[in-house]
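F.,

This is the one I mentioned.
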């Protein structure tokens, strides 16, 4: 991994609770709250100068801008929800560009696992644990925040363990 274990260790304890919250709210309400996205970006703004070299920290704002503009375009085209686009943009500064190929594979695996786990919960007695979740009855729509937040949390956790 190109992400330093030190940077991952700085971000992980602050990001993980936000990721859990995003998973919960997206499954229960099919929404990623703006507060969660703002807090995720605030973690980068505040922790980033301690976690990254200052020049790298400043360049990571370009990641945010490029991903946000791309996400807005994809949302306008109906490809993804606005909350998903904003979450991805807020998470982008914490991702090292050298890890994009690895991150894509991790996201593919995470989305498959999240989809299977969600469908198992939806069609088994596990559903009784949270019978009012909107995602159970959302038709073919899937709470992508479950996979997105899972990917970010796993990426940072693996960065702590295997980063440079």
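My design for it:
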């Amino acid at each position: 991994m190109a992400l330093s274990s030190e940077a991952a260790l700085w971000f992980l304890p602050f990001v993980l609770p936000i990721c859990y919250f995003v998973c919960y709210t997206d499954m229960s309400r099919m929404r990623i709250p703006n507060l969660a996205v703002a807090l995720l970006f605030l973690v980068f703004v505040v922790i980033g100068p301690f976690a990254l070299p200052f020049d790298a920290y400043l360049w990571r704002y370009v990641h945010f801008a490029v991903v946000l503009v791309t996400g807005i375009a994809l949302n306008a085209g109906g490809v993804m929800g606005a909350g998903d686009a904003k979450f991805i943009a807020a998470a982008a500064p914490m991702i090292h560009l050298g890890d994009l190929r690895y991150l894509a594979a991790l996201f593919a695996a995470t989305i498959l696992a999240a989809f299977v786990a969600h469908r198992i919960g939806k069609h088994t007695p596990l559903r009784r644990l949270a019978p009012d979740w909107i995602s159970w009855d959302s038709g073919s729509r899937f709470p992508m925040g479950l996979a997105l937040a899972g990917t970010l949390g796993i990426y940072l956790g693996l960065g702590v363990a295997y980063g440079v």
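The radius of gyration is 16 Å.

Talk soon.
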